[in-house]
Design a protein that fits this description.
about 20% helix, Deoxyribonuclease I, Chain A, alpha+beta, 6-stranded mixed beta sheet, about 250 residues, 6 helices, globular
């Protein structure tokens, strides 16, 4: 029996709005709920931050990914990338399907930025599997090029041929060069397939750069959406992307 599900990706901006003037995580949680996604890929998620916790009275006692998952997404995984005196942040996956296994792969190049690929293996109804990778790549092109090659190497080792695969996140690929590299490992991009070009997602209030992507392999894309409207435009510096996919 075919399975259809929705994937959403969002750079959370650590729970603050565009100019970091307002803590908006409670509003973000409601917006993410209203998107009705089965799998949520999050970047720049705070696992903890002592200074912010003291400064903001509505700061959750749980890590941001757990606060967002709440009772809607029963399974979640967090990959810590950057660690500093006040806390740490990284990528997270929220899933309505059980997460059978996960691993965070450090793809940092040099010392300027800590970046990771959070790889999750999900169990879906009927006993099948879906592999999901949440990515946040470097701001620097020469580092992104190496990280894209590391991603292809990871997929070659960890994802069996023919297994449904989703790779999404913040690729910082404003020059649109990731597609050619990832095509070599069989990945196609959902918005390119449907509209002929990647979706513009940054900055949130006036999106003109295509930084965020949803790539896929061995699934069918049913629809795509760019959530470039309120409340999303006031909740992060990126707007989310979503796609509905079908697994035969």
């Amino acid at each position: 029996m075919a399975l259809t599900f929705k994937v959403l990706t969002l750079n959370l901006h650590k729970g603050f709005n565009f100019w970091n003037r307002r803590f908006v995580l409670p509003e973000l949680r409601e917006a993410v709920r209203q998107a009705h996604a089965d799998i949520v890929l999050l970047q720049e998620v705070l696992g903890g931050h002592a200074k912010h916790a003291r400064r903001h009275k509505d700061w959750p006692t749980a890590p941001q990914y757990e606060f967002l998952a709440d009772t809607i997404w029963k399974d979640f995984a967090y990959g810590r990338n950057a660690v500093y005196p006040a806390g740490h942040h990284g990528n997270a996956v929220l899933s309505k399907f059980p997460i059978a296994a996960w691993h965070n792969h450090d793809v940092s190049i040099g010392r300027r930025e800590r970046r990771g690929l959070l790889h999750c293996r999900l169990t879906v109804p009927g006993g099948g599997e879906i592999h999901v990778v949440c990515a946040h790549l470097s701001l620097f092109e020469h580092e992104r090029a190496q990280q894209l090659n590391l991603l292809c190497r990871l997929l070659g080792k960890a994802v069996p041929p023919g297994t449904p695969l989703i790779v999404g996140g913040d690729f910082n690929d404003w020059r649109r060069r990731a597609g050619a590299v990832l095509a070599r490992c069989g990945l196609r991009e959902a918005f390119v397939e449907e509209h002929g070009r990647p979706a513009r997602s940054f900055p949130a209030r006036w999106p003109f750069l295509a930084l965020d992507r949803i790539y896929f392999r061995d699934v069918g894309v049913q629809s795509t959406a760019v959530h470039a409207m309120r409340p999303w435009t006031h909740l992060s510096d990126h707007v989310p992307l979503s796609t509905e996919v079908k697994v035969a």
